[in-house]
Amino acid sequence: MAQGSGSEEQTFNEFYTEVKEIEKRDSVLTSKQQIDRLLRPGATYFNLNPFEVLQLDSETPLEQIKKKYRSLSILVHPDKNPDNKERAQQAFEIISKAYKTLENEPTRKKCLEVYEEAKDRTDMMIAEKKKKLKKEGKHDGVPEDEPAKYKHAIYVMVMKLFADIERRRQQLEVRDMEERKRKREAEIEEEEQRDLQKEWQKNFEESRQSRVNSWHTFQAGSSSSSSTAASAASAVKSKKSKKAKYTSFNPPKIKPETR
């Protein structure tokens, strides 16, 4: 029992020392250093984690989160950095976004779930390492048995999970954008088809009277032609009839005169 208590005390002392080092590091960061930290190459990857942005532990209560946000926001505020206003504005927006994420209970809960998953995955990874060493007949343990390295392994896994979440978000955003674009193109095509149909219908209506007049003219011409043809046919028939009449006439035979 005494040995276990001593081990716990050693772990606590190591943790306390690490916390103090972090506090000391943070205390010496000037406005420029904070701005540089938030905008350093590859910072986008680290800034996905709001706790990392505000330099806080995941178990920090909301009240402490608010205090840290106030101090950092004042430090990097554009008005406090007139010679570096543009970069200061970018840093200020990063800090504000991180705070809004942690201030909101549902989004803060999701961030804490990332930490929980990171811990579970790290523990599984360590167990797999130990299992492999055991098969190889080695019992020296793994580096993550040390509290500082274990914490660092979780930290790395947390960063990876946040990056995976962001990657999926971007993929969904691209997919959603493509779907909206496809729908819009379909709508534009439908609108064009409707416009063409309206234009055709308009032209059809405008030319209706012209077609009706043309039809009437055609019918009138057909009737006249039919009448003329009928008259001509009747005249021909009459001539034939007369000709036949005269042709069929047989004059009487003259008898010779007797004396």
From TrEMBL:
Domain J: 49-119
Residue spans of biased composition, Low complexity class: 222-236
SMART domains from the UniProt entry: DnaJ
GO cellular component: nucleus
Alphabetical list of InterPro entries matching this protein: DnaJ_domain, DNAJC8, J_dom_sf
Annotated spans, Disordered: 176-259
Biased composition (Polar residues): 210-221
PANTHER family (UniProt xref): DNAJ HOMOLOG SUBFAMILY C MEMBER 8 (PTHR15606:SF4), DNAJ HOMOLOG SUBFAMILY C MEMBER 8/LIPOPOLYSACCHARIDE SPECIFIC RESPONSE-7-RELATED (PTHR15606)
UniProt protein name: J domain-containing protein
Organism (species): Anopheles farauti
